[in-house]
TrEMBL record:
GO-annotated cellular components: cytosol
This protein's name: PmbA protein
Domain Metalloprotease TldD/E C-terminal: 231-447
GO molecular function: metallopeptidase activity
Boundaries of every Metalloprotease TldD/E central domain copy: 124-224
Similarity comment: Belongs to the peptidase U62 family.
Positions of the Metalloprotease TldD/E N-terminal domain: 26-90
One Pfam family in the UniProt entry: PmbA_TldD_3rd
Record field: transmembrane: none
Organism per entry: Sphingomonas prati
């Protein structure tokens, strides 16, 4: 197995082998990941899983023809066969005028930021088991909780290395920890399920197990005896658990590939007032201990904080090198990739900036509305922006949260929804994508 100190050098060696075998250019991504996951249910150990593996992916170019191959066998014979297969595949592939590595002059060759995403430690099975048991025990002890789907805890460490034939060869390591609990409240046909979870790069930042368990139990019991609302147009308020999901279609619509293919509902939106003035959407790959922080992108370009929406206006596209060439722009440092295939474009630590209103102020004037805590299905049309999702949550009556509601559908069009969006002041960074509580006026709610 490779060690982290040799990862970048091994990737660079495979690049050199590919060029020696006839490739005009190449890049290699190496990933080693070691993880432990422990799950418990009803106070007993349910499962312990340990994985420890490494993979390497080679992408090479012969002229404007390219091929990508990957392997989890890193023996010398396997690497020779990998290179030979990739060169043969590339020679038979169709030409792509936009194919190629990132421009060499743009590579992250200087000092990269320390984003502090490796705490240098770990957590063993015994510690993880104890954390999972505590989370479930606290959740099950709450009045109204009748059953458990289980709890879990995990710890992992990964090494990521990237090398290119243009001279880039760097690596970084990450750690990750998680804890979750999922429980059931009520009985028979009135049962309701909910969960709580948290993830962190440093074990010291992981939420306490009792906090996670208590939140899971309280969420499940709060959903008992839901009703359906009458259909109509009304304000919809998205809880922070789901509000960040409104950013996903935005990012998908402004990737270079979607714009180049003309398959985006925001095709003509660059520079336009997409949101209300004062609203910002920010991508920050350098957030210290961020779940998606990284010192360079999937093509070796430097990463930087970017304001995707500034004062309500869409500032531009996000693009990897191939889509940037199609659009006639520079790549933006947003390339993301897996072991197999070519890079695409995506964000890192994305967030909708907090507003000025408290949550209480945000909902104070709502006579009848919906507070959404769960979304069901994937009803977003990337071509038109039409949005329709199953939902559950709570009614809002006279500015206060009221009875739980279920089996409703909320619908609108994302362009209109973005224009009407008002964020509260309660932004907390918990995941890779974050948003505060969000209010959107006049969505269509279909209930009873």
């Amino acid at each position: 197995m490779l060690t982290s100190s040799s990862a970048a050098a091994r990737a660079a060696d495979l690049v050199a082998d590919a060029v020696a075998a006839g490739a005009d250019s190449a890049d290699v991504l190496y990933v080693r990941d070691a993880s432990t996951q422990v799950s418990v249910r009803l106070g007993k150990l349910d499962d312990v899983q340990r994985s420890d593996g490494e993979e390497i992916g080679l992408r090479l170019f012969v002229g404007r023809r390219s091929a990508s191959v990957s392997s989890s066998d890193l023996s010398a014979d396997a690497m020779r066969a990998l290179v030979e297969r990739a060169v043969a595949m590339a020679r038979e592939a169709p030409e792509d005028p936009n194919a190629g590595l990132a421009p060499a002059e743009l590579l992250a060759t200087g000092t990269v930021p320390d984003v502090d995403i490796d705490d240098g430690g770990g957590a063993g099975p015994a510690e993880l088991k104890a954390r999972a048991l505590e989370a479930e025990e606290i959740a099950r002890a709450l009045p109204g909780v009748t059953n458990s789907e289980g709890a879990g805890a995990s710890a992992s460490r990964a090494t990521i290395a990237l090398a290119t034939s243009t001279g880039f060869a760097r690596e970084y390591t990450t750690t990750a920890y998680g804890c979750s609990a999922s429980v059931i409240a009520g009985a028979g046909g009135a049962m309701q399920r909910d969960y709580a979870s948290h993830s962190a790069r440093h074990l010291a930042d992981l939420e306490a197990a009792d906090t996670i368990g208590r939140r899971a139990g309280e969420r499940a019991t709060a959903r008992l005896n839901p009703v359906q609302l009458p259909s109509g147009r009304m304000p919809v308020v998205f809880d922070p658990r789901v509000s960040a999901g409104l950013l996903g279609p935005l990012i998908g619509a402004i990737t270079g590939s979607a714009i180049a293919r003309r398959t985006s509902f925001l095709l003509d939106a660059m520079g336009t007032q997409l949101f209300a003035p004062g609203i910002s959407v920010i991508d920050d790959p350098h957030r210290v201990r961020g779940l998606r922080s990284r010192p360079f992108d999937g093509e070796g370009l430097p990463t930087a904080r970017s304001e995707i929406v500034a004062d309500g206006r869409l500032t531009g596209w996000i693009a990897d090198s191939a889509s940037a060439r199609q659009l006639g722009i520079q790549p933006t440092g947003h390339a993301s990739r897996g072991i197999g295939g070519s890079p695409g474009a995506g964000t890192t630590n994305l967030h909708l900036a907090a507003g000025t209103l408290s949550v209480e102020e945000l909902i104070a004037d709502i006579a009848l509305g919906v507070w959404v805590i769960e979304l069901i299905g994937s009803g977003v049309n990337g071509l038109t922006g039409d949005y329709s999702r199953g939902a559950a949550g709570f009614a809002i009556r006279d500015g206060k949260l009221a009875e739980p509601v279920a089996e409703i559908t909320i619908a609108g069009n994302l362009k209109t929804m973005y224009r009407e969006l008002v964020p509260a002041s309660d932004l907390v960074f918990r995941g890779g994508s974050n948003a505060p509580t969000v209010r959107i006026e006049g969505m269509t709610v279909a209930g009873a």
